[in-house]
Design brief:
Elements: E1 6-10, H1 15-31, E2 36-41, H2 47-53, E3 57-60, H3 77-95, E4 99-102, H4 109-118, E5 122-126, H5 133-138, E6 145-147, E7 163-164, H6 171-174, H7 178-189, E8 196-201, H8 208-220, E9 227-232, H9 238-247, E10 254-257, H10 263-269, E11 272-275, H11 279-288, E12 292-294, H12 304-313, E13 318-320, H13 328-340, H14 342-351, H15 357-372
Parallel strand pairs: 1-2, 1-4, 2-3, 4-5, 5-6, 6-7, 8-9, 8-11, 9-10, 11-12, 12-13
Helix pairs in contact: 1-15, 3-4, 7-10, 8-13
Length: about 375
């Protein structure tokens, strides 16, 4: 009798690490419906809500961020890693895990440490063009490395042996047919007939800079009937944003929502996206072919969001706009000509290289399964 696949995935902090981990879990379940899959994270990040909501068990460990801003507290990192690694090892033993995956972000490091302690195979996936500190550390503990972008290899210990698999994204986005879903999406968001849609998406928690600029832009365009702004604020900023739109008299031209539970509908309805440049977002835009104005988060470690953004801006699929320049005036100057000439948006959409992102979850799942010694079913992984 075949032993079901048993995998533990380390992922947490932000959606940029969690959503790819969930996409991997989805692919593992496709390969083995009986697979036992759980996650390791902390009590601090979005994993406490996103992972249980997706139907997976979350084990939490006591880990602190890999953050230079900790000052003297950074000296606590070795002890925190040993403690949280031991906690992770206990999880692995209880679940009888066969392999461990680290998706990046500080909550994933204990999972890789725990795998080392338990003598289990492990693999990391680096999603950013410039790797984060957790994966730079974890890369020294495993010989199995995968990356979303070729450029990441140069920044990882042992990066020459890393395989580029792309960025795991949800199956609903990997196979998205925007034209086919467009009318359903417009009905779902209540978009007025004929209006072009600009989606403001600040990431998992929203982005204050993008939201403020969107409200100012809505006030400027309050009398226009040919454009509609869909603003994802994050839950904390929702009430203030809605109040700001009302005070500005911009209600008819804009709407604010706390979440976008159906990103397939969001990308289908959008003619243009204004967003941060997290790696998951870059992969989703490249795969779905949605034109974008990318505003990298200026305080991202190693300025990795700017490096991510250049993957699309250098190809002509997006405009790169510095955070400090993201005002209603600047956005209007960029967006107005695009909305006035839809052919320009079409050219941008075609310029995006989807790469292997649509297959990345299955390719990474194949790597994981291979480490257990079980036969794989997806196409052979290519470098």
């Amino acid at each position: 009798m075949r032993t079901p696949l048993s995998v533990v995935i380390g992922a947490g902090g932000t959606g940029g690490h969690i959503y790819p981990g969930l996409a991997l879990a989805e692919a593992l379940r496709r390969a083995d419906p009986d697979a036992v899959i759980s996650f390791i994270g902390t009590e601090r990040g979005l994993e406490t809500t996103l992972i249980p909501a997706a139907g997976y068990r979350l084990h939490t460990v006591d880990m602190i961020p890999f953050d230079p801003a900790l000052g003297a507290k950074r000296f606590l990192l070795p002890a925190a890693l040993l403690r949280s690694g031991a906690q992770a090892r206990s999880v692995l033993r209880t679940q009888k895990a066969q392999v461990v995956v680290g998706m990046g972000g500080y909550p994933s490091a204990p999972a890789i440490v725990g795998a080392k302690m338990a003598g289990l195979p492990s693999v990391i996936h680096e999603s950013n063009a410039v790797p984060g500190r957790a994966n730079q550390f974890a890369a020294r503990l495993t010989e199995h490395l995968t990356v979303a972008f070729d450029g990441s290899r140069a920044h990882l210990s042992g990066g020459e042996r890393a395989r580029t698999v792309g960025m795991p994204i949800a199956a609903s986005l990997a196979a998205l047919d925007r034209p086919a879903l467009r009318e359903e999406a417009r009905r779902a968001f209540g978009i007025p007939g004929g209006a072009r849609v600009v989606l403001f998406n600040g990431g998992s928690l929203g982005a204050a800079r993008l939201t403020a600029a969107a409200v100012d832009l809505a006030a400027r365009w309050q009398h226009r009937g040919d454009v509609h702004l869909l603003i994802k604020t994050g839950p904390a900023a929702l009430a203030d944003t809605r109040r700001g739109l009302i005070d500005a008299g911009a209600g008819p031209v804009a709407q604010a929502v706390p979440y976008l539970d159906r990103m397939d509908l969001a990308y289908a309805v959008a003619d243009l996206v204004v967003c941060r440049a997290g790696s998951a977002t870059i992969a989703e835009l490249a795969t779905t072919g949605v034109p974008a104005v990318l505003v990298p988060y200026p305080h991202a470690p190693g300025d990795h969001q700017t490096h991510n953004a250049r993957v699309l801006s250098d190809a002509g699929a997006a405009h790169l706009l510095p955070d400090a320049e993201t005002t209603a005036d600047r956005l209007a100057a960029l967006i107005d000509p695009l909305l006035a000439h839809p052919s320009r948006l079409a050219v941008m959409g075609r310029a995006a290289d989807p790469g292997s992102h649509a297959r990345a979850a299955d390719l990474l799942a194949e790597t994981v399964i291979r480490l257990t010694g079980q036969p794989t079913t997806t196409r052979e992984l290519t470098s």
